[in-house]
């Protein structure tokens, strides 16, 4: 009975993030306006900038509150999911890259806008890494109990090797970027959010598979770090061809795929995708290690 009640409350919290808190975060971002009163912008491009930053901070604060509460009660993966659902509403309410660049291109400011988006992506990426670390710390107690209940504790699980983490993080950046590039090939909001989510799944999964002896929290942080790097490098990748070529590529819809997700898209994708990637890769590692034991 206790497990049924706990499961019911857990899904109630998840639904609250999806249907109650998330829409508030979406409104906070959706009311922002760009130059000339244009709808569909991002916090760093909003006018006035102070309101954009304040509303973005409030939206991230709501995601943090839901994520930390859920992690404290039900574990870090549930906390990440709740934070991701709130951020997904905020990301969905932000402008898409084509809508943002259209007026900027007409004003000859496409390069400046992409640089500001890179700064926004990097800043939100760092905030996401910090929030993920807090969620993992707050949910550590519940995570340990879950591991004990499933008899998955292994000797040496808490051993962290910096070299292995670095290799895992590099692999996460490479595969996460490749998957996002492949999935987010159009500036449609749903597609770019799903592209970031798919990239996060791939990044966290390959980080765990590259170093399966590391604790799950290390693989999770490698995945979040990879998404933070991609959030900053995405807009920069569109600038490598020069300002004039960038404007022409934007007009023709041929801009770098990695530039299509905005900072909020990357953040939402990270919090929704990393738990999925860890769950999938964890099951693969368990199956691989179980076979030799069964054979012996």
List the helices and strands and how they pair.
Layout: H1 2-30, H2 49-74, H3 76-93, H4 97-106, H5 110-138, H6 140-149, H7 162-183, H8 189-210, H9 216-237, H10 243-252, H11 263-295
Helix pairs in contact: 1-2, 1-3, 2-3, 2-5, 2-6, 3-5, 3-11, 5-9, 5-11, 7-8, 7-9, 8-9, 8-11, 9-11
Structural write-up:
This protein has one domain. The protein is 78% helix and 0% strand. It is built from eleven helices and no strands. The radius of gyration is 20 Å and the shape is globular. α1 packs parallel to α3, α2 runs parallel beside α6 and α8 crosses α9. Residues 151-158 and 291-296 have low confidence and may be disordered. With 296 residues, the protein is an all-alpha fold.
Identify the notable features of this structure and list them briefly.
globular; 296 residues; disordered C terminus; 0% strand; mainly alpha
Return the structural class: mainly alpha
Helical proportion, percent range: over 70%
Estimate the global geometry from the Cα principal axes. Answer: globular
Q: What's the β-strand tally?
A: 0
Distance between the termini: 38 Å
* Uncertain spans: 151-158, 291-296
For the largest beta-sheet, the strand count, sense and barrel status come to: none
Short note summarizing the structure:
The chain is mainly α. It has helices spanning 2-30, 49-74, 76-93, 97-106, 110-138, 140-149, 162-183, 189-210, 216-237, 243-252, 263-295.
